[in-house]
Design goal:
The complex is a heterodimer of chains A (152) and B (439). Chain A is α+β, with helices and mostly antiparallel strands and 152 residues long. Chain A contains six helices and five strands; from the N terminus they run αββαααβαββα. In chain A, the strands form two sheets. Chain A has a three-stranded mixed beta sheet. Chain A has a two-stranded antiparallel sheet with strand order 1-2. The longest helix of chain A is centred in the C-terminal third of the chain and has 14 residues, at 135-148. Chain B has a domain at 87-226 and 310-438. The A-B interface holds A 58-61, 63-64, 66-72, 74-75 and B 89, 93, 132-133, 135-136, 139-142, 217-218, 220-223, 225-226, 228, 396, 399-401.
C-alpha cells in the first residue's frame, strides 16, 4: 500500500508565520499538526496544536485538573492571552518532526506513532512534502479494507 | 579517656582529609551530580586507604549506617504508596476551604499541615504535592502565591527538625547517638514548637503587604475528586498510624527505627500489592547512593584518625563543663551557617564521628547532638539552596507563570536570612535557658 493513499494533503508552515496561521490551517484540514519548512525547503520541524495550547494553560492547573470546579474564573484564559498566543511566531513552538516515506508499510507507520507517542506522521518523498498520515486516516482505511476483505 | 584520641596530625590524616575535601569540592561545585561525586570520592578513599593502610573495604562497608539507609529507603517506599491515593491533595483542599479565603489564616493552616506532615514524612514529597495546589488555591483567591510557597518551605524545614524521622540529618544523628524517637521528640519538639510559632508571626509580618486582599473569594476545588483510591488510602493511613505508633515505642522493644519502617513497608506491600516497577524503579536511589558514598568517605577520614584529632582539639574546650554550652552554641551556629550555604548532609556526616570522638574523650556529648540537629535543621532556611524544600518552592513559583510570584535568590535572602537568624536566636535562648534538660 502506498502511504500517499492515506495521506491528507496540507499546507506547510514557513518561517515567520504566526500561531494563528497554524490554527487556521489545522482547522481547515482537520488535522492536529502541520510540518514546518525552512528557507531551504526542508521539513525541519512540526507544529502541534496540543503543544501550542499547553503554553496557554499554567502547569499547576494541568496537574490539578481532576480537582478543579466549574467556577474557576480566576484561572481562565483571558482573551488578551489568547490574542497574544495567536500572534506569537511559530518558531517558539517547533518540535522534532517524525517523517516517513510513501513506501513505508502501514504497520511500521503505526509502530512509529506508538514509538514517538504521536498520532500523525509527515510523508516526504525525495525531499518533497506529500501530506500527513494520521491514526484517523488509517482507521478509515481499516474499515474500508475490512468490508472488502483485503489486507490493509 | 582523652589519651585514646590522637593528639597530633600524621600523613594518613592529611591524605584522607585531602580526598574528602576534593570530594566535597566536587559535590558543592556541582561540576557533576552530587551522587556521582560521592561515589567517585568513596572509591578513591577506599583505594587510597587500602594503599596507605588506614582504611579497608570491610571498614568502608561497616561505615555505612544501615539503620539510616533502611529508614530513609523505607519511608520513601511508604510515601510512594501513599502519594497516589490522593490523600495529601484532599487534605490541602479541605484546609484551604477551612481558611474561608482569609490570606493569613490560609498561610497558617497550609504551613501547619505541611509542617506536621514533615515531622513524620519526607518534607520534599510534602512540598512537591502541596506547592502546585498552593499556587492554584492562591490564584483562585487572587493572592500572590510567593509568601505561601516560602512559608511552607521554611516552616516545613523547621517542623522536620522536631522528630527523629523528620529530616535526614536527624535520622543520622539519632542512629549515631542511639537516640530513640520519643527522646528525640521530647527534647526537640518543645523548642521547635516555640520557634515555629514565633517564625509564623515573623513571616506574617515580613509578608504583610502581600497578604492583604480586598475581597474574600471561594476556593472552587472538589476534595472528593482528589482521592483516587479510597480503599488504598484507608489501608495506607492504618499503616502510617502503625509506623508512627511504633516509632514512639520502638526503644521499649529494642527495635531499630529502620526495622520499624520496614515492618510498615512489609505490611503496606501485603495490603497494597503495588506494581514492583513503579515502586522500586522510582525509589530515590540517587539520594541513598549519595548518603552511602558520604558515609564511606567520612569513614576513611575517621579511619585515618583525623576526626579523632579534631575531637581531641574540641575536647580541650568542650571537656570543661563550663564551656560545654558555648561549644553547643558554636556547633549550632556553624552548622546553621554552613547549612544555609551548602548541603547540610555532608556536614552532618562529618560532624557525627567528631562528636562520637568527643564522647570517647569523656565529654557529655548529648547537648552537642541537639545543637547539631537544631543547627542543620534551622540553617536550611537561610538561602534558596539551603534545603530541597526551598528549591521546590522557587521552582514552583517560577512555573506558576505569575511574575509577582517569582522568588529570586536575593528575595529569599531578604526574607529567609532574617527568618533563619530569628529562629536560631530563639533556639539559642531556649537551648541556653534549658541547657540542663539537653545534657
Amino acid at each position: 500500500m502506498d502511504l500517499l493513499n492515506l495521506a491528507v494533503d496540507t499546507r506547510v508552515i514557513r518561517p515567520g508565520a504566526q500561531v494563528r496561521t497554524v490554527f487556521e490551517a489545522c482547522v481547515h484540514n482537520n488535522v492536529s499538526a502541520l510540518p514546518y519548512m525552512d528557507a531551504q525547503g526542508v521539513i525541519t520541524g512540526k507544529l502541534s496544536i496540543r503543544h501550542i495550547m499547553k503554553h496557554a494553560i499554567p502547569d499547576h492547573v494541568v496537574r490539578m485538573a481532576h480537582v478543579l470546579g466549574d467556577n474557576i474564573d480566576a484561572v481562565n484564559i483571558p482573551p488578551v492571552a489568547v490574542e497574544g498566543l495567536l500572534a506569537r511566531p511559530v518558531e517558539e513552538f517547533l518540535l522534532e518532526p517524525v517523517i516517513v516515506s510513501r513506501h513505508t508499510r502501514v504497520i511500521k507507520a503505526l509502530a512509529m506513532m506508538e514509538y514517538h507517542n504521536t498520532s500523525y506522521l509527515f510523508v516526504v518523498d525525495e525531499g518533497k512534502y506529500e501530506g500527513i498520515v494520521t491514526r484517523m486516516s488509517i482507521a478509515w482505511r481499516m474499515l474500508e479494507t475490512s468490508e472488502a476483505h483485503k489486507p490493509i | 579517656m582523652i589519651d585514646t584520641l590522637p593528639s597530633s596530625i600524621n600523613s594518613h590524616m592529611l591524605i584522607a582529609t585531602g580526598v574528602m575535601l576534593a570530594a566535597y569540592v566536587l559535590i558543592f561545585s556541582e561540576v557533576m551530580h552530587r551522587s556521582a561525586a560521592a561515589i567517585i570520592g568513596a572509591v578513591v578513599m577506599i583505594g587510597v586507604g587500602e594503599y596507605f593502610g588506614f582504611y579497608s573495604q570491610q571498614a568502608a562497608v561497616l561505615a555505612i549506617d544501615g539503620n539510616t539507609m533502611f529508614l530513609l529507603a523505607g519511608m520513601m517506599m511508604l510515601v510512594m504508596m501513599l502519594r497516589p491515593t490522593g490523600g495529601f491533595e484532599y487534605l490541602a483542599i479541605v484546609i484551604a476551604k477551612a481558611a474561608g479565603g482569609r490570606p493569613i489564616r490560609l498561610l497558617i493552616y497550609l504551613s501547619l499541615a505541611v509542617s506536621v506532615i514533615s515531622m513524620f514524612l519526607d518534607n520534599v514529597t510534602t512540598m512537591l504535592i502541596f506547592a502546585p495546589l498552593t499556587v492554584l488555591i492562591t490564584r483562585l483567591l487572587h493572592i500572590n502565591p510567593m509568601p505561601y510557597l516560602m512559608a511552607e518551605a521554611m516552616l516545613s524545614n523547621i517542623g522536620g527538625t522536631a522528630t527523629l524521622v523528620g529530616d535526614p540529618p536527624n535520622v543520622m544523628i539519632g542512629s549515631a547517638a542511639g537516640i530513640d524517637f520519643l527522646t528525640f521528640m521530647t527534647h526537640m519538639a518543645p523548642i521547635i514548637g516555640v520557634v515555629w510559632l514565633c517564625t509564623v508571626f515573623l513571616i506574617v509580618a515580613l509578608f504583610r503587604r502581600e497578604l492583604r486582599v480586598d475581597t474574600l473569594r471561594h476556593v472552587d476545588l472538589d476534595q472528593d475528586k482528589a482521592i483516587t483510591d479510597p480503599a488504598g488510602l484507608k489501608r495506607m493511613l492504618w499503616v502510617m498510624a502503625l509506623v508512627i505508633g511504633l516509632f514512639f515505642v520502638h526503644h521499649w522493644f529494642h527495635l531499630f527505627p529502620g526495622y520499624v519502617t520496614f515492618i510498615a513497608v512489609a505490611l503496606a506491600l501485603a495490603l497494597m500489592r503495588p506494581a514492583p516497577e513503579p515502586l522500586f524503579g522510582k525509589l530515590n536511589w540517587s539520594v541513598l547512593v549519595f548518603f552511602a558514598g558520604l558515609f564511606v568517605i567520612v569513614g576513611g577520614v575517621a579511619g585515618s584518625g583525623m576526626l579523632g584529632y579534631i575531637g581531641y582539639q574540641m575536647s580541650l574546650v568542650a571537656g570543661d563543663p563550663g564551656r560545654l554550652l558555648l561549644t553547643g552554641l558554636l556547633i549550632m551556629w556553624v552548622a546553621a551557617l554552613l547549612s544555609a550555604a551548602v548541603d547540610n548532609i555532608p556536614f552532618t556526616v562529618t560532624m557525627i564521628p567528631v562528636i562520637t570522638g568527643l564522647q570517647s574523650a569523656g565529654v557529655d556529648v548529648m547537648p552537642l547532638w541537639w545543637a547539631l540537629a537544631l543547627g542543620v535543621g534551622l540553617g536550611g532556611n537561610g538561602s534558596h539552596i539551603g534545603a530541597t524544600a526551598n528549591v521546590i518552592a522557587v521552582a514552583e513559583a517560577e512555573r506558576s507563570g505569575d511574575p509577582r510570584a517569582r522568588i529570586t535568590p536575593v528575595m529569599w535572602l531578604r526574607k529567609g536570612l532574617p527568618t533563619m537568624f530569628f529562629s536560631l536566636g530563639i533556639a539559642s535562648v531556649l537551648y541556653s535557658a534549658f541547657f540542663a534538660w539537653f545534657a
